Amino acid sequence: MTQTRFSRLRLSIAAVTVATLAGSALLTATTGTAPAAAAPTAGALTGKTIFLDPGHQGSAAGHDLAKQVPDGRGGTKDCQTTGATGVNGTPEHTVNWDIAQLVKAGLESQGARVVLSRNDDTGWGGCVDERAAAASRSGAAVAVSLHADSTTTGSDATKKGFHMIVPTLPVPDATVNQVQGSGGRTASNLMRDAFLKAGFPAANYAGVVNGIQTRSDIAAVNLTKVPAVFIEMGNLSNPQEAAALSGRDGQLKYSMAITDGILNYVSGAAATSGSSAPTTSAPTTSAPGAAATTPPTTTTTPSGDDSELSAVLPFIQKLLGTEDPAEIAQLMLTEGQDASAQVLNAMLEVIYGLFGGKLPIG
């Protein structure tokens, strides 16, 4: 992250923390007092469970990563991997973990119970089949797996963008087939829409069609019995995307888009509960890693039009685009006072905690 971008984020953190806590920039800046933990908030996700899987992990922690486990298609695959490494040296597992922490904070600010597949970025998080089983046991409204792609070990500036991976249908397990062919596909499409709305480009490689890639080899969606979304947030081989995925301001934007997609899906699922499952056209069967030959079904954002978070996306752009503390404070007072600001504030408190309880001012 450049010094200018870091400076902007520091000012944003200071302004948001001040606006949230008590209205005096001097209070926190001079005392270094950390904000009190936010109390659970009743909100759009009250009573809902969300399962977050920060993909991969930092080490084998004494386990055999090459152990073969079920892939959901009658075959097997490696238990787990430590993931890719960005062209800037940032490990994928750390990117996934950091963004998951921000998403968790945002979801909890709206009353959700969040279950994580792993407890930290260094220890054991389970094989891919174990994580799918944990998601199924959680009874989550949706399970979201966070990943960052890599197209080469070196720099690759030409390939960029996000994509959602959905399973080739039919999936052998009848329950998984029904759930992922309906709710899982709807949730994936809505997440795709949230990423596009946030200004992230759909991937321009690997045969991705409108932000969706269909594969048969992803155990997370082949085995999970609750609606699943598998996100490749960007390409760590692309220097620009690697910087965004590892920088705090970029992670904030990714996290807001992911939270937006989850809220859109869960609120829509709640509104249509008791009705028949959404109709989606099954993609053409393809080999592992190949794209579907039919375009993904277009979904409609749940009634209520755009979610509460959609309005905050241009607000974040404004917030990160100024270095004037007075302007930031004014933005928070005039545009940051709704539920979307609760999500943003919760995420910024997580970022704030990375500095040891002291605002990095000056």
User: What order do the SSEs take from the amino end to the carboxyl end, as H and E?
Assistant: HHEEEHEHEEHEHEHHHHH
Low-confidence regions: 1-41, 274-306, 355-362
Categorize the overall geometry: globular
| Share in β-strands | 5-15%
N-to-C span? 17 Å
Calculate the mean pLDDT score and round it: 78
CATH class of the largest domain reads Alpha Beta
Number of domains: 2
- Percent of residues in helical segments? 40-55%
Q: How many strand segments?
A: 8
The largest sheet has its strands arranged as 4-1-5-8-6-7
The number of helical runs is 11
Largest sheet: 6 strands, mixed
What do we call the CATH topology of the largest domain? Aminopeptidase
Q: CATH-wise, what's the superfamily of the largest domain?
A: Zn-dependent exopeptidases
Short précis:
This protein is an alpha/beta fold and 362 residues long. 42% of the residues lie in helices and 11% in strands.
